[in-house]
Fold this protein.
Amino acid sequence: MLEKSSIQNLDNSDYRLKIFEEYKRLEKVNWKRVGYKYEEPETFKEFNNLEVKNENQDGVVIKNINDSLQELESLKNDNDYGLGDFFKKQNFAFYNEGKYLKIKERKTVEKPIYLNYRANKENNFLVDYNVIEVEDFAKVTVIITYDSEDNTPVYHNGIIKVFTGRNAEVKIIKIQTLNTSSSNFESSKIETLGQGKTQYYSVELGGKINAISHKSYLEEDSAEVYVWPAYLADEDRKLDLEYSVVFRGRRTIGELQGRGAVKDTAKKVFRGNLYFKQGSSKSEGREGEFAILLNDKIKADSIPTLFCSEDDVIGEHAASVGKVDESKLFYLMSRGLSEGRAKKLIVESSFRPIMDNIDDEKLREKLFEELERRI
């Protein structure tokens, strides 16, 4: 159990202790659809295996999250996000890593900035809080990875917040390949201002338990956001994934396009939500999830929803969940491929719209190798 004594001597302890008192009164969260009852980690540990790359570029400021309290206070607002109070307050009380990344106004950052979290036997408890602020007319790509260096089960509770300024261009690539004995809980939020553009690519290949909640806000006129999640659910893994886009400005564009594969005895729930608020006229929203089922009797739910409080908008949603296309399978096998190899090619082709946008060739190759091994 996470105890008060673990945080009494940490930085920002007064704030942590106050949040802890609120946290301990909250009920633990359960996910009924995937059949998972939450288990709290046994103890708090420090995390000392974060690698930051390409931070020394013009216009880039990176600080430890503990040294950024003033900046975080200035970015606070009432926009809801995440897995709920239980996980957010756990994060605020027990965070042991995280960065505040700022890109200054009108700066174009040429090389992607990396935050690489590597878990192992000594670093198997990670509660991280990451904030990315991109000022007006700036441009950047940020790649955040979570990976395991050994087979030690990992507990991860992460928060990612992205603030995209006016006319800014931001690409966020998040790759999670923790070992399949791990628990992975993540809350993320994107806020995009007028004529800003944010692309968010989220790849979930690891973890035995995965609960993800993401929310993007199109705050002002002509803002754009594109959310592309990808996942693999295999063995007896459990995934509960929720992605939402909220339209507030006029003439905004929001897209949510999920890609995934499910096999063995895994259970998966994917929720996609579009919210058109009053004042979002002339906006366009599209959502879809395309899941390939590689075995019979698989538990896989897809729940696309659309909520509209404004006239004169375009909203589209779709879900496609089914077995491998038999005609494609027959065509590939007629060209000499085995059934297993043909299925792998079909799944890989479904993932390509997301993988091809990862700005790192070695990382792309590693992900395709992981898919090749497990499909």
Notes: The first helix runs from residue 13 to 23.
